[in-house]
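BACKBONE STRUCTURE TOKENS:
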Amino acid sequence: MNHSVVKKVGLYPLIFFMLISTIPPCYAYWKLSLPEQTPVTSCFLREYSYYISTGTVFRIKDVDFKNPTIITRGLEEKRAHALFFYNDKIYVGTNKGVFKLTDDTMGWEDISGKMLANKCINSLCSHNGCLYAGTGSGVFKLDTDLTSWIEVPGLEFKLVKAVYSHGDSLYAGTIGHGVFKINTDEQWTEFNTGLPTTISVNALYSYDDCLYAGTSNGVFKLDADTKSWQEFNVGFQDQGKNTIVHTLCSDINYLYAQTKWGYFRTKTRQETSE
């Protein structure tokens, strides 16, 4: 039975990405009180509030998703790319460093330090109790003092779009250089068996205990036994369009891929057996 089949999903703005995550087509429409066609880059739920990044950071408290609060103090003239919850604090990666939300009324505190000052932060994640940032020039780890950053060697001068913890390992998706995995010496090594040469990896995501990569050539799935990437693109080609995948997400039933041409999801077991 082939589960690597994807179907087109009709969706309202990219706000969908923040609320669910998985792949097969399901024609759902979300109504959120944000401007139409607002590109949502990240979101999470914390203490009955949704925090949403669209370049600006919003907080929405009520269940009807109305009356969003804009949290901008400290982020003036900065564009928010990635939100992450770590050590009971909310962090945001921007086009000019990393910031921590000290209090909703106080705003954002700059914790970029010298290493990340004015750097573009594309992704944040935690691994083995530490916070990592994927940037336009490598990956950095927040030191134990929570105020300074240390570069993780091996990805210097590479544009990192995704940094992601899966199982016992930390992975990085790069533009033009594929996937890297951190080794026991805290250095990056290539992890590209099965991937096309010079592929760009925009997203990494765990679903159903498997690691997926959203790339410039569609979706790939990591085979845990062979440690190689397998193409997961049946259905994308049927559209006859560009299959660059920008983000991956899921709910309990599906894995979803966001492309320029809309959302796609994996088929269910029932659909693939028909």
